[in-house]
Q: What sequence folds into this?
């Protein structure tokens, strides 16, 4: 009887030991590959960053150093600046339409924007670079009806690409070159009439890496390292491509993408409408490798549009067309 009990205890111990080893191995694998299993999440409720009784605010964009958030107002008129603590709000530009496709320079010293001017019923467009600290502006392109798409920065901020008709121009200045980021490439990526271009402004040479046959390419955004681009194609959803032209893939039907600083996710808006107005806007973190989506705003009824992630990756700002406010929400990337 004692022998049988001893054998039973021995066998049971072996099973427990084997199970413990398996759990230990599983735990180590989970620890070593935490980025694979961990998922982003919202930490708290959105808080109001900017509000007004007389106008609606929209299209916020975080500066590269995280110190300032820019945003626009109704019909994309004007650009305002505000600190992430909600203080030091000021207006940078009052130009009409300037807040639609503006972008921060890679160093955060300038804002590049296309704006509108009207003569009777005809609309003309110009392009300017605005010094964020002084508010002084340098007009790069004067009144024209030939700007085909939004102007784009080179990765180091030394040049601006402005597609004028079928002849892209690469514009620089002593100040832009002086404040360029020395360890980044001078490469620039932009789209014109369904084609995605990569160019070297130093030799004014470009090549087409993608052709969507004149479908609109919008929301183009480069990854933090500049080796990937995310963009939306009209009727075809959100896509990722390497900037050498390889590995094109469709990852979602969300819109308005913004990169997380680690380059592993884009945060974008999944929009619903009733044919007349937007009825819902939900933020999702989308894994750029797998296309897996994590819902970040199930806990709020806000219509979250035009997200922008902070350089530290801990916050996202967005606008809400229902009340015209700019909101900020804490997020956790679970690295």
A:
């Amino acid at each position: 009887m004692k022998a049988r009990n001893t054998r039973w205890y021995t066998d049971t111990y072996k099973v427990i030991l084997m199970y413990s080893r398996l759990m230990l191995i599983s735990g180590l694998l989970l620890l070593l590959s935490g980025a694979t299993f961990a998922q982003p999440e919202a930490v708290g409720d959105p808080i109001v960053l900017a509000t007004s009784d007389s106008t609606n605010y929209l299209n916020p964009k975080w500066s590269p150093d995280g110190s300032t958030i820019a945003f626009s107002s109704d019909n994309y008129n004007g650009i305002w600046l505000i600190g992430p603590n909600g203080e030091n709000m000021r207006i940078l530009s009052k130009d009409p339409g300037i807040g639609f496709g503006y972008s921060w320079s890679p160093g955060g010293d300038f804002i590049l924007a296309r704006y509108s001017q009207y003569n009777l019923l005809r609309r003309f467009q110009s392009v300017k670079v605005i010094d964020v600290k002084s508010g002084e502006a340098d007009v790069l392109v004067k009144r024209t009806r030939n700007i085909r798409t939004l102007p784009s920065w080179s990765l180091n901020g030394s040049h601006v690409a402005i597609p004028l008709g079928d002849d892209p121009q690469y514009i620089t200045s002593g100040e832009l070159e002086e404040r360029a980021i020395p360890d980044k490439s001078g490469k620039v990526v932009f789209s014109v009439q369904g084609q995605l271009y990569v160019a070297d402004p130093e030799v004014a040479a470009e090549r087409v890496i993608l052709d969507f046959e004149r479908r609109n390419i919008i929301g183009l955004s480069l990854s933090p390292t500049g080796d990937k681009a995310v963009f939306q194609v009209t009727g075809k959803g959100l896509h990722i491509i390497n900037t050498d032209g390889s590995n094109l893939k469709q990852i979602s039907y969300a819109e308005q993408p913004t990169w997380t600083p680690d380059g592993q996710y884009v945060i974008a808006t999944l929009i619903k409408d009733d044919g007349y107005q937007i009825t819902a806007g939900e933020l999702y973190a989308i894994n750029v490798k797998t296309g897996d989506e994590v819902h970040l705003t199930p806990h709020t009824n806000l219509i979250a549009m035009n997200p922008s992630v902070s350089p530290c990756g801990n916050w996202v700002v967005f606008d809400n067309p229902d009340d015209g406010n700019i909101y900020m929400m804490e997020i956790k990337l679970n690295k």
